[in-house]
Design a protein that fits this description.
single chain; 223 residues; alpha/beta; Heat Shock Protein 90; Rossmann fold; 2 domains; five-stranded parallel β-sheet; three-stranded antiparallel β-sheet; 8 strands
Length: 223
């Protein structure tokens, strides 16, 4: 693997010592660009621990390229027939296709969850904050909501509270599953009290998420 920049580059002498702890290209580098001179030394140590090598190629004034070479054995399970484009990932549940509202402001997290659930046959609408959640549920029907807690404009706590207020006095109750990096038991209890029906810690375990969606949506559809 390699990383290339278009920065200030290095001389041959600077390149020789760049992987030494607390060394940078020149003495004024940290003052101008920040850093402690440890990053590349740590990368070198980690690479060597994995039996690989790391090196740099650079031309002063024209940027630098850093290369890492690692050797890995290919697991036997990956040498079999690859997953075809239209194949669906295996699931321990027989979850029926759902219409899901996903609220997540981190684009990478949102794309991952949406892609996996879409391939499992579900229809996903993605939004970035709690205010957009409220707008969506006022105009569309969803089987459940997957909601991050820390989002801009309106966080997941406030959105869940307002949804439950809207449902008060009606027979409606849309399942809301919290997706959060906080996995402590007291956080789970707080979220349930706030109006969430379940709590899935990040990084999201898709099997656990599908199991919770199955449990909650089946309970919601029961007479």
């Amino acid at each position: 693997m390699s990383v290339t920049d278009t920065g200030i580059g290095m001389t041959a002498q600077q390149k020789e010592r760049i992987f030494t702890p607390f060394e940078q290209a020149d003495n004024s580098f940290a003052r101008k660009y920040g850093g402690s001179g440890l990053g590349l030394a740590i990368c070198r140590r980690l690479t060597e621990l994995m039996g690989g090598r790391i090196w740099a190629e650079s031309t002063e004034g024209h940027g630098s390229s850093f290369y890492v070479e690692l050797s890995y054995a290919i697991p036997e399970s990956l040498t079999s027939e690859p997953l075809r484009k239209n194949d669906k990932p295996c699931s321990s549940s027989d979850l029926q296709p759902l219409t899901i509202l996903l609220a997540e402001d981190n684009r990478v997290n949102a794309e991952f969850v949406a892609k996996v659930l879409s391939r499992a046959g579900h229809t996903i609408t993605t939004v970035e904050n709690g205010l957009q959640v409220l707008e969506q549920i006022n105009h569309n029907q969803f089987n459940c909501i997957l909601m991050d807690i820390q989002m801009p404009i309106m966080d997941g706590d406030e959105a869940a509270r307002l949804i439950r207020e809207q449902e008060r006095g009606t027979d409606r109750h849309i399942p809301i599953i919290a997706l959060t990096a906080h996995a402590m038991s007291d956080e789970r209890a707080r979220l349930l009290e706030q109006g969430f029906d379940a709590h899935i810690p990040k990084p999201v375990d898709i099997s656990m998420l599908m199991a919770e969606m199955k449990r909650l949506t089946e309970a919601a559809s029961s007479p």
